Amino acid sequence: MALIVQKYGGTSVGTVEKIRNVARRVARTRDQGNDVVVVVSAMAGETNRLLGLANQLSEMPNERELDVVASTGEQVTIGLLAIALTDMGYKAKSFTGFQIPVLTDSAFVKARIRKIDGDTIRDALKNGEIAVVAGFQGIDETGAITTLGRGGSDTSAVAVAAALSADVCEIYTDVDGVYTTDPNICEDAKKLDKISFEEMLELASLGAKVLQIRSVEFGMKYGVRIHVRSSFNDNPGTIVTKEEEIMETAVVSGVAYTKNEAKITTVKVPDRPGIAAKIFKPLSDANIVVDVIVQNVSVTGYTDLTFTVGRGDYKKAMMITEGTAREIGAERVVGDDKIAKVSIVGMAMRSHSGVATKVFETLASEGINILGITTSEIKISCLIEEKYTELAVRVLHNAFGLGKPASG
Amino acid sequence: MALIVQKYGGTSVGTVEKIRNVARRVARTRDQGNDVVVVVSAMAGETNRLLGLANQLSEMPNERELDVVASTGEQVTIGLLAIALTDMGYKAKSFTGFQIPVLTDSAFVKARIRKIDGDTIRDALKNGEIAVVAGFQGIDETGAITTLGRGGSDTSAVAVAAALSADVCEIYTDVDGVYTTDPNICEDAKKLDKISFEEMLELASLGAKVLQIRSVEFGMKYGVRIHVRSSFNDNPGTIVTKEEEIMETAVVSGVAYTKNEAKITTVKVPDRPGIAAKIFKPLSDANIVVDVIVQNVSVTGYTDLTFTVGRGDYKKAMMITEGTAREIGAERVVGDDKIAKVSIVGMAMRSHSGVATKVFETLASEGINILGITTSEIKISCLIEEKYTELAVRVLHNAFGLGKPASG
């Protein structure tokens, strides 16, 4: 008998019939003798509908009130799921953010969880009830309703699992688990049985969008085993867990990529302290998120500074940067809005030399020019021309032996 | 400067554009220097949509969870209205049932308000904010979400007004106020400037459906002046208040009616103690609401017992009563499913003799046969054949001089 937290996203509870399916799966887990806590999102489309109403009333809706409106989506789902479960003869009780309570800071629309009191849910479990918990929402110290931002239900689930010291937090989604790369690009992409929190963080932020980043951070901080699996079948998925729990580690766990990037280089920047700040401040003031930043070592008193932004921000970022370049006396600004980023991620990289070399050789052997490089302890990212994305992913996936063994 | 509670129903907030209109009206009241608390219902149709989802999952949805689902309707409206107000530059803050809190008993889907803590709202008002309060909802002692049942937002508004000792509780609706009778039947029906709580209770329960009965009871108990008025114009409506505040009182304030009634008479019932209970117990067990009950005084050891039910319950009630009649040895049961009830209501009736006589004479003069009579201190009701309803209302309205003075 285990304590299992299960999380179902918006598409898993998108219709009344799907809610009934979730109820059946929850009931089966309960029938196996487990204590079950279910965390759910709003029915698919509902959050957008609610935000749409708000946006019709204001171009910049008051964020405290936006959370009052948006949080109703999850509240509807918990009530409906509890109704489905009680209709099937199970004891079930729903809990909103304020009823648990899930205490957050007061950063409306992007609040962070501070503390979850596990007692209310524990009482329900002791009472033989299935606890059905609203994801995405909490309250701040003043009792105001907050939401955690898009994808926040994953974080809710992992945080609840941490508060209850649950045996596992199962995240049900529309994929089977975490793959070595995008199966749409590499036919032989392989589902990973286990992956470390650290690798998952790098993969998630790079585009393997199966788990919200903050939920992984939470899992890492509190040591919550996360099981990412499909809500359409009973196959085991991918366990995200501590590095120590993973016996056999490949040097590289996966290949990630993001398209739709754009690259901007400020050429011949006078290399003085504070120059980088001068370039990036106007961008962050304009709410433009900068991803990769590459700065050459200066030997001549001048340096080239390259960064990437999302393609949607390209024109605005170019304009801003051209202004900054004139101000600081840089020579010129050049840009390219057809860029992709390909990354390999792996814990064992730390203790293996030659991984970077292998990446560069592999790409070079296919004639793929590298436009920029950044590395972390467990990740190497290369900027390339977008048209080479699929090819780069495939050759890297193959070079590091990530594919399924050839069958037959 | 006054403290004004305003309540807007579902049709008044049925669309984003209508919510904006409500915001404008609220803002105007604020601009006049008043403290304003707004109580709102769910957007028209929303409660039915939510209950529909629940009913797809269960024929008898768990009522605790039904309230979790249903209460989101009002929560969406308060958020949207607060967004509209802040967008117009006003300080506004929304409050759910748990945030105030509105403490109720635990009778889910039909909870009763026990206590409203006015401090949270008072703090907001002191802070210069317009308080936007969710009607219809509360929490019980365990923190579970409750709802007050259909029309409960009127009660929420009056209860909030009582808790804050507001100067007036304005109920905005789609009619101009309370009329002496149905203007669709009597062209010269007149809007009442004032009416007592007691009269309003009798009129409301008889079919003048502008105010939820329980809100009137609440207003009477706590002495809250209620102003029923139209959300489509600025005309003064009808003030419902204490009898003492009403200077000129007509003998009769209004004529009410209900159609779609059915009458069942058990003939020659042995007049023994407990017989009435024997007849009515099986009906209440079958959830049939009995309205008027008339029992003749027995002089022979036998009595005739007549009662009315809604027409939809007629067949079932006949069947049940026929069974009971055999059991208790009554002679037979006769029924009529084409019955209406016409009533006159007036505080001054208590001190005026001859009112009943005038009613009977007026109906008789038009050849309308009276099939049953019940009276209270301030009301006389007559059962008549349904086809005479409009005629009866018109002649009574005229006989008691309720119409507008003839113009021109």
Could you estimate the helical fraction of the residues of chain A in percent? 25-40%
The tally of domains of chain A stands at 2
What's the average pLDDT of chain A? 92
What CATH architecture label of the largest domain in chain A applies?
3-Layer(aba) Sandwich
Q: Give a count of the beta strands of chain A, DSSP E runs of length 2 or more.
A: 18
This entry's quaternary arrangement is homodimer
**What would you call the structural class of chain A?**
alpha/beta
Structure description:
Chain A is an alpha/beta fold. The first copy, chain A, has two domains: 3-173, Acetylglutamate kinase-like (Carbamate kinase, 3-Layer(aba) Sandwich), CATH 3.40.1160.10; 255-399, 2-Layer Sandwich (VC0802-like), CATH 3.30.2130. Helix content of chain A is 34%, strand content 27%. Chain A has twelve helices and 18 strands. Chain A has helices at residues 16-31, 46-57, 63-70, 72-87, 119-126, 152-163, 197-206, 213-222, 275-285, 314-328, 355-365, 389-399; strands spanning 3-8, 35-40, 92-95, 102-104, 113-116, 130-134, 137-139, 145-147, 168-173, 194-196, 226-230, 238-241, 254-270, 290-295, 302-310, 332-345, 372-376, 379-385. In chain A, the strands form four sheets. In chain A, strands 3-6-2-1-9-11-12-10 form an eight-stranded mixed β-sheet, sandwiched between helices. The longest helix of chain A has 16 residues, at 16-31. Chain A is globular, with a radius of gyration of 24 Å. Chain A binds chain B through residues 16, 19-20, 50, 53-54, 56-62, 64-69, 71-72, 75-76, 78-80, 82-84, 86-87, 92-94, 96, 98-99, 143-145, and chain B through 16, 19-20, 50, 53-54, 56-62, 64-69, 71-72, 75-76, 78-80, 82-84, 86-87, 92-94, 96, 98-99, 143-145.
